[in-house]
Amino acid sequence: MNVRARSRQVGIAAALVSALLLAVPYALVSGFDAQLAGYYTAGPVGAGGVALFALLSAVVFASVERGNVDPGTLAGALVVLGAATTLLAALWWLSVEPTTMFGEHRWLEYHAPAVTAASLPVPVSAGVYARELLE
Length: 135
Description:
By secondary structure, this protein is mainly alpha-helical. The protein has eight helices and no strands.
């Protein structure tokens, strides 16, 4: 098994799942526009910042083997991007304030922790990729 290729695949998948998981409340919750906006903007950068870092991580994971930039440089950037994605997801989770929207949509209590958990493989995969690249 090629650990380097597999870690890239896992990193891309985890980053995309994290970004897509962020969109679930937007697609399923209606009638709570102001509360949903507050939910998405909680924390230092909100869910938009988490999605941005997750998608950027996916793009860097996908392009690291293309040869346009030194792979070692991109591997280091991936570790930082992955850690930032998970850190921002955790900060967003801790910043979310429960509202009346949570009473009608109980599953929202588990949404932010699920996004954080989904982002955990991103820095792990980036670290494994960097280790395999530099050996």
